[in-house]
Design brief:
Blueprint (H helix, E strand, L loop, with lengths): L1 H28 L7 E2 L27 E4 L4 E3 L7 E7 L4 H17 L4 E7 L9 H7 L6 E4 L1 H8 L4 E2 L1 E5 L5 E6 L3 H16 L2
């Protein structure tokens, strides 16, 4: 009887030890995706991920709007005519932006030869700019990084200043989809939008 009780106690202690080791991993794997981050101090809705393709009104075509590379060169979508383009608005301090970058790297590697070009547009402000080179190195970003002009930022984001915002344009410069935030659903939506953009003539 004593041996049986001793065996039960040993089994209980071992099971409890296993649970103590496994439970934190289970809790971490079930945590929700990081919410989008507001560029300004305005309050944001946690994990709300609207997908709207309605750009802000502008007197200029989006293909004429420019961004300035980290080397100081000015470029535009018009110069990438015939390519499907992703404009990704991000900052180094934004957790879901960090989550999204490996997927953007994968998309560029997978679809680059078919005509996809991703441009990472940092909107973190003057305080964030000095952190960009180390961030690019840390995350092994394989696509160009630049800073958008105000008109381009306003055109794509409108009144919603949460990031990441990821806009997919087809080969003719038409917005196929815009996604705010990043999670598993956004990952699927983004890949589907890229395939649609690449299929355009």
């Amino acid at each position: 009887m004593k041996d049986a009780l001793l065996s039960c106690k040993i089994i209980y202690v071992r099971m409890r030890s296993i649970l103590i080791l496994i439970l934190p991993l289970f809790i971490l794997s079930c945590r929700p995706a990081a919410a989008p981050v507001a560029v300004s101090n305005r309050p944001i809705s946690v994990n709300q991920r609207p997908q709207t393709n309605i750009p802000a009104a502008s007197s200029r075509p989006v293909t004429d709007m420019v961004w300035i590379s980290t080397e100081g060169q000015t470029s535009s979508m018009g110069q990438l005519k015939g390519k499907a383009i992703i404009l990704d608005f991000w900052a180094t301090y934004c957790p879901p932006c960090r989550d999204e970058i490996p997927h953007l790297n994968e998309l560029q590697a997978k679809y680059g030869a078919q005509g996809l070009q991703i441009i990472g547009l940092n909107v973190g402000g003057d305080e964030d700019k000095p952190k960009v080179p180390a961030f690019v190195k840390e995350f092994k970003i394989v696509y160009p990084i630049a800073y958008p002009e105000d008109d381009l930022l306003q055109f794509v984001t409108g009144n919603d200043d949460r990031i990441p915002q990821t806009a997919v344009f087809d080969r003719n410069g038409k917005m196929v989809k815009k996604i705010v935030g990043f999670d598993g659903s956004a990952k699927k939506d983004l890949e589907a939008a890229v395939e649609t953009a690449l299929a355009s003539n």
